[in-house]
Write a structure and sequence with these properties.
722 residues, alpha/beta, 55% helix, 7-stranded mixed sheet, 7% strand
């Protein structure tokens, strides 16, 4: 008859060969004879765990631990089980290390736990100790490589992956991860070779197929990329990443409907995937489906790259009346996003909010005149300083913005008159059409290689008669303006631009801005300046698809790539449009007709004219007409800045005057409708009477403004009483 130890040896052999049922029977017999046999309890717990009963396994391991507290392997496996259950495992791993400091495996397990907790520096140290103990173990090298990759130390990660592959050349996951690291180092050919090797080693390796697809995608081979993701899905129909990456490939092909379907499938597999939800949101927004798009886009705040202040301790605002509470609206992505979404600030203030803007300092001066802002902060702000908060890109969702309800009135930002005058002196020597140019965005932007084009392509615009180019480029590439390719004429203002307030003031003296998709495009749009934007084939969601205008910016015109990476066609279209625009521009004239007409008027008359221009800027859609409106308004605003128009009593009268002029605009439209219909009945008579009643109210408001502002000129009226 076999002894218990002999039976245990047989059971362990069966266990190691995968004969779990046989091993479990033997462990059970041993425990029937000796319920306190710690090894049998430990090993039986491992089989029960694999059988899907982790709680039963945990109870059995705790019994074994009471009997044999000094067995390192037992504490290691207990730690693994606790980690699987989402319970604290670090103590068990550290106990195993203390019992067997010569073992690498507990170090590797602790490193994996620390990495999962985001403690990457600690994890790196633990993995290095594991490698020191077992230089021939692949897990230590792979773990270290993974940590270095997550810390963006990609050269170190590549070296660690290569050391692992030198030990085990057929380690599929390592081949794939090495390819991912090489992609991060922008070595696409080498990356593709390792992804290809991974799927050759195992054609059913879904992650390898989708990584191969991402390599193809980065090289612009979008259809081949989509097919690689299809192979990933075929290999593993439950692989959410395969569906999501296939959807991304389709979105990059501007096939938004297919992308939306793909993201929905990814979410069915993994309902909690923040990236799939966020990308679904962007696909819906680019397709103009704002209602669901905003809702899904909120998942961006749960993604790994979400800003830390997305989850502040104070409550998020959901749109309810604010009743004087302080609300922090904070930026979360690029400067362009802040410039686009600050249009909502007056709407937040109108709901009773005391608005604090938390944005980079570069935006402070240009937003100084934004209505509704109580305070601007560019650094840390104590949570005691505000009552609620909201990321700025969530304002679209809070206000339930639809295509037909975008707050598109421009300008909603303005340039400082003093700066306008100062920069105007620099522009005064230019003749013809003054065109500001920007050829690159921030190099840290994820899509910068697809949107930035460099200065050289603008030489064709400099060759157009009657065009003067002005560099307003900022950032690492602004130095190109000091020596334009081929020496084409270019006024270089870039070195003296401090922030967006300077850029805005320069734009006030320009006739047109031509730029790539960057923050300058948003600034020009917010100022109501005519702006032409070069948009890459797969656009950012806000530019939507298949349209030359932007519902966000009435003075914007879009010139789109029709093929990824090919700028020749949109540049040719832009050049042709600029030649036509120059040919019809009054700026080609010289002589006295170019001089502004200067005539003294009362303050009331001046402010009345500005309110009418405000209404025109809101209601006129034609870009050329809007440019003229903007130019006239800027000139009048520069004069109006000399008066104290921000005084509460004056501001109220200006708002009343704007409302009166809006009423007149509507009344005159209705009168024209009657005229067109040849309907001169009671409605026509009532409208005609409303004109002179409203004009009397308008005259009274102008008189009150003249009195409050001490105008030397006073407009007089003389009508018979009615």
């Amino acid at each position: 008859m076999a002894t218990i130890q002999e039976a245990l040896a047989v059971a362990v052999q069966q266990h190691q060969h995968g004969q779990l049922a046989m091993a479990a029977r033997i462990y059970g017999r041993i425990l029937a004879l000796d319920p306190a046999h710690s090894d049998a309890l430990h090993l039986m717990a491992l089989i029960i765990r694999r059988g899907g009963q982790p709680q039963a396994a945990l109870r059995m391991m705790h019994r074994a631990l009471l009997l044999a507290p000094d067995i390192a392997e037992l504490r290691l496996n207990l730690g693994n089980l606790l980690r699987e259950l989402g319970l604290g495992a670090a103590t068990s791993y550290r106990s195993a290390i203390a019992l067997r400091p010569d073992l690498a495996t507990p170090q590797e397990s602790l490193g994996g736990l620390l990495r999962a907790q985001g403690r990457l520096t600690d994890a790196e140290g633990v993995y290095r100790r594991a490698i020191h103990l077992n230089p021939a173990g692949t897990e230590g090298h792979n773990g270290l490589a993974n940590v270095l990759q997550e810390r963006n130390i990609l050269d170190g990660a590549v070296a660690a992956y290569r050391r692992s592959l030198a030990i085990d050349p057929a380690h599929i996951a390592t081949c794939n991860n090495l390819g991912i690291a090489l992609r991060g180092l922008e070595r696409p050919a080498a990356a593709m070779a390792w992804h290809r090797r991974a799927v050759m080693l195992d054609p059913t390796f879904a992650a390898g197929h989708t990584s191969f697809g991402l390599s193809l995608q980065e090289q612009g081979r979008l259809e081949a990329a989509a097919q690689a993701h299809v192979r990933a899905i075929a290999a593993d129909p439950a692989f959410a990443g395969g569906y999501a990456n296939h959807a991304n490939a389709r979105l990059n092909q501007n096939r938004a409907d297919e992308a939306i379907t793909g993201f929905r499938r990814a979410i069915l597999v993994d309902p909690a995937s923040p990236d799939a939800h966020r990308n679904l949101g962007m696909a819906l927004l680019v397709a103009g489906r704002f209602d669901e798009g905003w809702r899904e886009y909120e998942w961006r705040l749960r993604c790994k790259d979400a800003p830390t202040h997305a989850t502040l301790s104070k409550p998020r605002w959901t749109g309810e009346p604010l009743d004087g509470r302080r609300i922090l609206l904070h930026g979360e992505q690029g400067l362009g996003d802040a410039l686009q979404f600050c249009r909502y600030v007056p709407m937040v203030a109108a709901r009773g909010g005391r608005v604090i803007l938390g944005l980079p300092a570069a935006l402070e001066r240009v937003m100084a005149g934004l209505p509704g802002v109580e305070r601007f902060v560019s650094g840390q702000l104590s949570t005691d300083a505000f009552d609620l908060h909201l990321p700025m890109l969530s304002l679209g969702e809070v206000f339930r913005t639809q295509m037909d309800s975008i707050p598109h009135r421009v300008p909603y930002l303005s340039a400082e008159p003093e700066l306008v005058s100062r920069w105007g002196d620099r522009l005064a020597g230019l003749s013809g059409l003054k065109v500001g140019i920007v050829w690159a965005g921030s190099p840290t932007h994820g899509n910068d290689r697809n949107r930035s084009i460099g200065l050289a392509p603008f030489a064709r615009l400099a060759a157009i008669p009657g065009v003067s180019l002005v560099s307003i480029q900022k950032g690492p590439t602004e130095g190109q303006a000091a020596d334009p390719p081929g020496g084409f004429p270019l006024l270089n203002l870039s070195p003296d631009i401090r922030d967006f307030a300077d850029t805005a003031a320069i734009m006030a003296g320009l006739d047109l801005v031509v730029c790539v998709d960057t923050s300058v495009a948003h600034l020009a749009g917010a100022l109501g300046v005519p702006v032409w934007v070069l948009v890459p084939f797969a656009p950012d969601w806000r530019w939507m698809l298949d349209r030359q205008d932007s519902p966000w910016y009435p003075t914007m015109r879009l010139f789109r790539q029709t093929r990824p990476g090919h700028w020749q066609e949109p540049l040719g279209q832009l050049e042709h449009a600029l030649r036509e625009h120059t040919a019809h521009s009054t700026h080609s004239r010289t002589g006295p007709s170019d001089m502004p007409i200067l005539a003294p008027v009362s303050w009331g008359e001046l402010l009345d004219k500005i309110t009418i221009l405000d209404i025109k800027a809101e209601r006129i859609a034609d870009a050329d007409k809007l440019a003229n409106v903007r130019r006239e308004r800027e000139a009048l605003m520069a004069v109006a800045a000399q008066a104290d128009t921000k005084r509460p009593d004056v501001a109220v009268l200006i708002d009343d005057l704007r409302a009166v002029n809006t009423t007149l605009w509507v009344v005159e439209d209705e009168i024209r409708d009657c005229e067109r219909a040849k309907d001169f009945g009671l409605r026509f008579v009532e409208l005609a009477r409303q004109v002179y009643h409203t004009n009397d109210r308008r005259a009274a408001l102008k008189r009150d403004l003249n009195r409050l502002l001490g105008s030397e000129l006073v407009e007089e009226k003389s009508y018979q009483a009615y």
